[in-house]
Specification:
With 73 residues, this protein is mostly helical. Helix content is 55%, strand content 0%. It contains 4 helices and no strands.
Length: 73
Protein backbone atom coordinates (compact mmCIF):
# COMPACT_ATOMS: atom_id res chain seq x y z
CA UNK A 1 0.00 0.00 0.00
CA UNK A 2 1.29 3.43 -0.90
CA UNK A 3 1.51 6.18 1.66
CA UNK A 4 0.91 9.75 0.61
CA UNK A 5 0.72 13.02 2.46
CA UNK A 6 -2.18 15.39 2.06
CA UNK A 7 -1.52 19.09 2.22
CA UNK A 8 -4.07 21.61 3.38
CA UNK A 9 -6.62 22.34 0.68
CA UNK A 10 -5.43 25.21 -1.50
CA UNK A 11 -8.44 27.33 -0.62
CA UNK A 12 -7.64 27.05 3.08
CA UNK A 13 -4.00 28.03 2.51
CA UNK A 14 -4.60 31.13 0.39
CA UNK A 15 -7.42 32.75 2.33
CA UNK A 16 -7.01 34.40 5.73
CA UNK A 17 -7.70 32.13 8.68
CA UNK A 18 -11.41 31.74 9.26
CA UNK A 19 -12.59 31.88 12.83
CA UNK A 20 -15.61 30.49 14.59
CA UNK A 21 -18.29 28.09 13.51
CA UNK A 22 -18.94 29.90 10.21
CA UNK A 23 -15.29 29.48 9.23
CA UNK A 24 -15.35 25.83 10.28
CA UNK A 25 -18.46 25.24 8.21
CA UNK A 26 -16.95 27.03 5.18
CA UNK A 27 -13.80 24.91 5.48
CA UNK A 28 -15.86 21.72 5.67
CA UNK A 29 -17.70 22.67 2.47
CA UNK A 30 -14.35 23.35 0.78
CA UNK A 31 -12.98 19.96 1.84
CA UNK A 32 -16.11 18.17 0.66
CA UNK A 33 -16.03 19.96 -2.71
CA UNK A 34 -12.33 19.12 -3.22
CA UNK A 35 -12.87 15.47 -2.33
CA UNK A 36 -15.82 15.28 -4.72
CA UNK A 37 -13.63 16.72 -7.48
CA UNK A 38 -10.88 14.22 -6.65
CA UNK A 39 -13.34 11.36 -7.17
CA UNK A 40 -14.24 12.77 -10.60
CA UNK A 41 -10.67 12.81 -11.96
CA UNK A 42 -9.96 10.35 -14.73
CA UNK A 43 -7.33 7.62 -14.37
CA UNK A 44 -4.71 9.57 -16.32
CA UNK A 45 -4.92 12.55 -13.94
CA UNK A 46 -4.98 10.30 -10.87
CA UNK A 47 -1.83 8.60 -12.16
CA UNK A 48 -0.19 12.04 -12.51
CA UNK A 49 -0.72 12.73 -8.80
CA UNK A 50 0.20 9.18 -7.76
CA UNK A 51 -3.20 7.91 -6.67
CA UNK A 52 -5.18 4.87 -7.70
CA UNK A 53 -8.91 4.99 -8.40
CA UNK A 54 -9.48 3.11 -5.12
CA UNK A 55 -7.40 5.60 -3.10
CA UNK A 56 -9.25 8.55 -4.64
CA UNK A 57 -12.65 7.05 -3.85
CA UNK A 58 -11.54 6.15 -0.32
CA UNK A 59 -10.48 9.75 0.29
CA UNK A 60 -13.64 11.13 -1.33
CA UNK A 61 -15.83 8.95 0.89
CA UNK A 62 -14.45 10.46 4.12
CA UNK A 63 -16.71 12.87 5.98
CA UNK A 64 -15.91 16.58 5.67
CA UNK A 65 -14.76 16.84 9.29
CA UNK A 66 -12.24 14.00 8.89
CA UNK A 67 -9.13 15.99 7.97
CA UNK A 68 -5.50 15.68 9.10
CA UNK A 69 -4.75 17.48 12.36
CA UNK A 70 -2.19 19.80 10.73
CA UNK A 71 -5.04 21.42 8.74
CA UNK A 72 -6.51 22.76 12.00
CA UNK A 73 -3.70 25.23 12.64
Amino acid sequence: MRTFTLNRPAELCTKPARRGWIGTLANMFAVKRQRRNLARLDDHLLNDIGLSRHEAHTEAAKPAWDVPSHWHK
